[in-house]
Write a structure and sequence with these properties.
This protein is an alpha+beta fold. It contains five helices and three strands. Strands 2-1-3 form a three-stranded antiparallel sheet, with no helix packed on it. The radius of gyration is 14 Å and the shape is globular. Bound molecules: heme C (3 copies). One heme C binds next to strand 1, helix 2 and helix 3.
Length: about 130
C-alpha cells in the first residue's frame, strides 16, 4: 500500500462514517482490535469472530495464520496484511474483498478498547 492510497482510504472512511452515524457497532462476541488504529488516526477494527468461525476452521487462523487466541494479544500491522499475513491472507481480493476496503474493517467507535465486545466470549479451546 502506498502512502497515497492510505490517505485516500482514510478520506473515504471519514466520508462513509459521516454518512452513517451510529449505525455501525460491535455485535455479540466481536473482537475489537485497537493497538495502533486510533493512535494512527483510523477507527478501531471490529472483527466479527462468529461470522468467520462459521466459515473457517479455528486452526486456519489460530494455527496456520498465527493469530493468538486472546483478544488484544496480536500485533497486526497493515504492511504485514498487505503482504498477505493475518487478515490479508484472505482479504486479498480472491478469498474475500481486499485490503483497500478500509471502511469494512475500521468501523469501531472511537474510544473502544481492545477486547471482546458483547459480554460473552468464545467458548473455544482457550476456555475448554
Ligand atoms: C480486513 C480488515 C482491514 C482492512 C480492509 C483495512 N485494515 Fe487497517 N487494520 C486492520 C487491523 C486488524 C489492524 C490492527 C488493529 C490494531 O491493533 O489497532 C489495522 C491497523 C491499521 C492502522 C494502524 C497502523 C498500521 O499500519 O498497522 C492504520 C493506519 C490502518 N489500519 C489504516 C487502514 C487503511 C487506510 C485501510 C484502507 C486502505 C485499511 N486500514 C484497511 C484491518 C484492516
Ligand atoms: C478468520 C480467522 C479466525 C477464525 C476462523 C477463528 N478465529 Fe478466533 N480469533 C481470531 C482473531 C483475529 C481474534 C482476535 C485476536 C486479537 O484480538 O488480537 C480471535 C480471538 C479468539 C479468542 C479470544 C477472544 C474470545 O472471544 O475469547 C478465542 C478464544 C478464539 N478466537 C477461539 C476461536 C475458536 C474456538 C475458533 C473456531 C471455532 C476460532 N477462534 C476461529 C480469528 C479467527
Ligand atoms: C481465513 C480467511 C479470513 C481471514 C483470515 C479473515 N477474514 Fe474477514 N472475511 C473472510 C470472508 C470469506 C468473508 C466474507 C466475504 C464476502 O462476503 O464477500 C469475510 C468478511 C469479513 C467482514 C464482513 C463481515 C460481514 O458481516 O459481512 C469483516 C468486517 C472482516 N471479514 C474482517 C476481518 C478482519 C478484521 C480480519 C483480521 C483480523 C479478517 N477479516 C480475517 C475471510 C477471512
Amino acid at each position: 500500500m502506498t502512502g497515497r492510497s492510505a490517505i485516500a482510504g482514510i478520506g473515504l472512511l471519514a466520508l462513509l462514517l459521516a454518512a452513517s452515524p451510529g449505525t455501525v457497532h460491535a455485535e455479540y462476541g466481536d473482537v475489537v482490535l485497537n493497538k495502533r488504529s486510533e493512535k494512527e488516526g483510523v477507527r478501531p477494527v471490529i472483527f466479527p469472530h462468529w461470522f468467520h468461525r462459521i466459515r473457517f476452521r479455528c486452526k486456519v487462523c489460530h494455527f496456520e495464520l498465527g493469530f493468538e487466541m486472546r483478544a488484544g494479544a496480536n500485533d497486526v500491522k497493515m504492511l504485514d496484511m498487505v503482504e498477505g499475513k493475518f487478515c490479508g491472507m484472505c482479504h486479498n481480493g480472491t478469498v474475500a474483498w481486499d485490503m483497500q476496503r478500509c471502511d469494512l474493517c475500521h468501523v469501531g467507535r472511537p474510544g473502544l478498547a481492545a477486547g471482546v465486545v458483547g459480554g460473552n466470549q468464545t467458548s473455544g479451546p482457550g476456555r475448554w
